[in-house]
Amino acid sequence: MPKISIIVAAYNVEEYLQQCLNSLSNQTFSDFEAIIVNDASTDATAEILRRSAEKDPRIIPVTHPHNQGLHLTRKTGVEHASGEYAFFLDGDDDLAPETCAQLAEEINQHPVDILHFGISVIGENGILDDECKAFEAFNNTQTKNCTGSDIVRNIYAEANGQQVDWRVTQRLFKTSLLKKAFNNMTSKRLERAEDGYECLVISALAHTYRSYKECRGYQYHYGRGVTGTNQVTASKYADFCQQFSQCFNAAQLFANQNPSLDLQDCVNGYRWKATELLANDLNVRIADEDKAEAIQAMFETFGPAITAREIWRFTRDNAWAAITSKDNNDSLNRANMWKRLADAIDVPVTGNIENNRYLTVRHRAEELLADLDTVRNRQKYANQRIRIFVTTHKNVSTFNSAIMQPVQVGLHNGSYRFPWAFHDDEGENISNRNPRYCELTTQYWAWKNIDADYYGFCHYRRYFDFSETVHEENAFGEIMDDYISVKTAKEYGLDDDNIARVVRQYDVITTPFGDLDEIINKYGSPRALWEAAPLLHDDDLKRCYQILCNMYPDYKKDAQDFFNGNKACFCNMFIMKKEIFFDYCEWMFPILEEFDKNTDYSTYSKEALRTPGHLSERLLNIYLMHHKRIGSNWKFKELQCVHFTNPEPAEQLKPLDVTDKPIIPVVFAADDNYVPQLTTTVYSAMKNADPRYFYDITVLQRNIAWDKQERLRGFFKQFPNMNLRFTNVDRELAGYELSTNNAHISVETYYRFLIQKVLPFYDKVLYLDSDIIINGDIAKLYNIDLQDKLLGAVRDIDFLGNLNVKHGKRMNYAKTVLKMKNPYDYFQAGVLVLNTKAMREHYTIKQWLTYASNDAFIYNDQDVLNAHCEGNVLYLPWEWNVVHDCGGRVGNLFVQAPNDIYDAYMKSRNDPQIVHYAGFQKPWTDPDCDFASMYWKYARETPFYERLLKRVVKANESEIPAGVLRPKHERAVGEDNPIRKIVDPLMPIGSRRRDAVKAIGRAVRGRH
Question: Any idea where the DUF4422 domain is (predicted)?
């Protein structure tokens, strides 16, 4: 038995085969056999092989009677191998003389099933040297020694880092392992991606693996054969797609036949990475005019989600290149080309893994394309003669302005450079001083690099108020506001026309010179204010004063008057004409330079380190006071300063990095008081969840306390297939005058309208109220095919029963107010499967919230959805939203619904998948209500059980009315809402007094 078997696949390689065979005969190690399998070559391969075998008996020819492809050629070679170890060599590659000797020595010292060695890359047919070096570096990267399932998982599973190097030609295998592996492989022809399939099977059956990349004796000729970057036709690419697909199918079959190996994530990883490699051919080797045809071939083989993901990947990568490169026109054009091709692929909403991966890449590409728009804004910035620079070190909202121009500071190696901003390290700069100089690095950069008529400076939180309205200020002389938005831009005159109108009237604009006897804790003088700052050094102010007096003696009086006076402007915010700004910089920066070089900062705190920035605020005041004193005749203007407490962009939720399970996105809405109920509902869902799915649970809220959020996150860690996140939607509702027709319902009821915007990366979402119990697996509900409808919902038997009440008021309401063609299609909105992709195409958030402002609607959001989605609803099985018997309505009201509807509802009560406590009777107010025992089964296992019990006691301190037939909308606020504390005792729910007041209110508004 030879030590090593070398298995060579040869097909029509007459040009290279002799070189390959010579490299075998010239090995310094002699104990080997070379099994050369001629796959029915039609050239001189057989003759070359015959002659070499006559000269070297270690060369053993094997001939296929007909061509079978690379995989089956290797399979034949393995069957003939008799060595203790074996490795593969392609017929157009060769070995360095010491290769076998090095492998034999290493395997003797460290016997393993798989010894992974290195490679030397030789470029052929025009392959660039840089490409060769990159390919060689990738294949020679050290990998971890490992055992068991880690061998295959380290190569293929994304969760393990996916090393991806699955070339079987760089591995020395125990021959017994190879024979076992190939016996388990398909006997069908495989090509192109066969390496990945073969390596997967072999690695899955191996027990030990070792890396030996120091040995680089395999000499790979990059550019020969099917490798390289030579152009291929769309028809040829279609063949590639089929070949890859056959390899993927073979890998899946092996995984299915060997469930104990648990290989699904590895098969997925192989398929995903190999598809990327295949798509790279589409990018590089297919002419642009043929790309659409090639994409169609890929679509027909792999389907829309997989194909679209790769096209969006190219869109993403080119958009990023356009953002980060100085000459970005080519990348921009290609990004737009790929986007056009991607937009042509319609990807249906499925919610499976492939759909999730597609959406993740698409939304990132769309984000970068949006950033490209802001990059183009920089071109319009340059055309402005008034330029107000907004210093920022983090991602913030900006106003729609060409005058106000963001500048990113605090940059260092590895910093993410905001594409929508200038950067203070470009051109001549002092960016490295930003920890000490703060916003002054922006001022210096503008001074040295920007040409304008007016130069202005403000901060990402603080802006000038250019309006003519005097706004109320706080004790620090600032106007306080929440968000940077269209609304606040209008309020503070922050539009370019108005800014330009104001600026051109003056030479210098600053924030107000406040009276320190009245503001900022009434310290009285700038000197006293500095001395009161606990982290600033008094000596620094004195030394700066001395430097100023030495360098500019004519400013001494102004400095004394300033420090001993009681007036100052703050924040280093100003706007100056060019000649004044340049004069100021030429005066101020040398002072700080002198201070800087004579200061030892080694023991300074972080705040003390910012001393030059603090000093510059004082220097600005002194400079301006001096020119007022000497009569420079500048036109001055003081504008109020508006401070935005939340300048950050609206919170953007990101897609989950989950690829091993299909994701079920679920949304709830709640307030702080409703947390116990929310917890119970989510807990019931997860107790019945299918572990084969991953549940992405998002809670839309405005005021849930952080400690409760943390408590919930900790509690739900028991479910590894779940993610819980909270997002504040207050900003999304800012500017809308929303109201409800029930005093105990707040704007939480409208949150479901925001889902399509808050979760843009999901095209299908499950929305659930927080007063339900879930007995079934909501993955089954989510996976119901919506058939392109806007949403899926269960009909509302409460409403339908009211339609048949003799007085006909509800029927008249449905037809005249809701304008429904078929009122019996009215659905309950507490359980919704939302086609958010279609909803985005049909309605904007503004439209939804405008509809919601219609005070003629009784049931607010539910009425809005019914009025605007009629005819575009898939009606779900009744068991997915079984409303409980509240106040005897099943026997008194529901029975009035159409017979078939009533029967279907009653049947659903026998096996409810979701029980909905929609009405005034809740388990936490009436523990004996319908289906209450089901609720408490889950509630008692949650961390808020005691709070629910407290609410039971509180609710039963007064009698709860019964016998109410009128349907009650779900209370979107918690039981402790202050509105309810006032209204409920005076007008109990269901009481005549409450109904009378409601009737009066409707009459006042002209409703019946």
Answer: 387-627
One-letter identity of residue 649: P
Instruction: For residue 263, give Cα distances in angstroms to 157, 201, 592, 720.
Output: 9, 10, 64, 19
Cβ-based burial of 796 (10 A; exposed 0-12, middle 13-18, buried ≥19): buried
94-95: strand order across its sheet: 94-95, 218-222, 119-123
Report which DSSP code applies to 789.
-
Q: 3-state class of 678 per DSSP?
A: helix
CATH fold, domain 4-230, is: Spore Coat Polysaccharide Biosynthesis Protein SpsA; Chain A (3.90.550)
Q: Are 974 and 674 in contact (CB under 8 A)?
A: yes
454 DSSP β-pair partners? 386, 577
HSE of 559 in the Cβ direction (CA atoms, 13 Å)? 19
The string of pLDDT tens digits covering residues 39-63 is: 999 999 999 999 999 999 999 999 9
State pTM to two decimals.
Answer: 0.66
Provide the pLDDT for residue 979: 35
Q: Report the candidate in 622, 565, 631 with the shortest Cα–Cα distance to residue 592.
A: 622
Q: What is the DSSP string of 592-606?
A: HHHHHHT---TT--T
CATH value of 663-975 in 3.40.50.300, 1.20.140.10, 3.40.190.10, 3.90.550.10: 3.90.550.10
Give the pairing type, strands 94-95 and 218-222. antiparallel
Nearest-Å Rg of the Cα atoms of the chain is 37
**For residues 248 and 271, is the Cβ–Cβ distance under 8 A?**
yes
| Helix ranges (DSSP H) in 394-537 | 434-437, 440-449, 486-491, 496-503, 526-532
The residue ranges of every structural domain in the chain are: 4-230, 429-447+455-646, 663-975
Strands 641-646 and 462-464: antiparallel
**Which residue matches tokens 């992709």?**
837
Of all helices (H) and strands (E), which one includes residue 929? none
Quote the distance between the C-alpha of residue 611 and its chain's center: 38
Q: CA-to-CA distance for 887 and 968, rounded, in angstroms?
A: 10
**Cβ distance 510 to 567 under 8 Å?**
no
What would the pLDDT profile of 523-571 be if each residue is shown by its tens digit? 788 898 898 889 999 999 999 999 999 999 999 999 999 999 999 998 8
Neighbouring C-beta atoms of residue 432, cutoff 10 Å: 13
Phi, psi for residue 490 in degrees, rounded to 5: -70, -40
CATH topology of 4-230 equal to that of 663-975?
yes
- Token pair for residue 467? 């309006």
For the chain, the average pLDDT equals: 89
Structure tokens at 953: 């006691």
β-strand partners of 642: 463, 479
CA angle 344, 350, 351 (to 5 degrees): 115
Pair 511, 617: CB distance under 8 Å: no
C-alpha torsion angle, residues 568, 571, 575, 576 (rounded to 10): 60
The rounded distance, in Å, linking the Cα atoms of 666 and 768 is 7
pLDDT digits (tens, 9 = 90+) for 189-211: 999 999 999 999 999 999 999 99
Q: Which helix (H) or strand (E) holds 695?
A: strand 694-701
Q: Are 729 and 956 in contact (CB under 8 A)?
A: no
Residue 726 is which amino acid?
F
Q: For residue 574, give the H/E element and its range.
A: strand 574-577
Lowest mean pLDDT segment, chosen from 142-156, 223-237, 785-799: 223-237
Tokens at residue 935, please?
């609720």
| pLDDT score for 381 | 87
Region 952-980 average pLDDT: 47
Q: Please tell me the distance from the alpha carbon of residue 731 to that of residue 481, in angstroms, as a whole number.
A: 12
Which residues fall within 8 angstroms of residue 590, CB to CB, at 6 or more apart? 551
Backbone angles phi, psi at 194, to 5 degrees: -65, -30
The C-alpha atoms of residue 884 and residue 696 are separated, in whole angstroms, by 27
Count of helix runs (H) and strand runs (E) in the chain: 39, 33
